[in-house]
Amino acid sequence: MENDISKAAAALGRRGGASKSDAKRAASAANGRKGGRPPTTFELRDGQPVMTKHGGEMVAGIVHVVRSGMISIDLEDGTSIKVSV
């Protein structure tokens, strides 16, 4: 019984998510002409804690801004990584 309800809900969700009104279609086209969705950006600040992959494992570190376009990440194991951003 519960599985039947889940299947019915999934089917309704698929149909609802696929619907496109004329207004949605026009808005999508207008956004595409403007270049589409902007890229995701982020800002690293000096002293900000981060997680990074190092030696195949995720490790914690602290960001230090070296200069524009270059950061250093001091890892918890005492090593340091320089990264171009």
The low-confidence parts are: none
Spatial strand sequence of the major β-sheet: 1-2-3-4
The string of secondary-structure elements, in order, is HHEEEE
Number of extended strands? 4
In short:
By secondary structure, the protein is α+β, with helices and mostly antiparallel strands. It has 2 helices and 4 strands.
Task: Characterise this structure.
With 85 residues, this protein is an alpha+beta fold. It is 34% helix and 33% strand. It is built from two helices and four strands, in the order ααββββ. It has a four-stranded antiparallel β-sheet, with no helix packed on it. The chain has helices at 2-18, 22-33; strands at 49-54, 57-67, 70-75, 80-84.
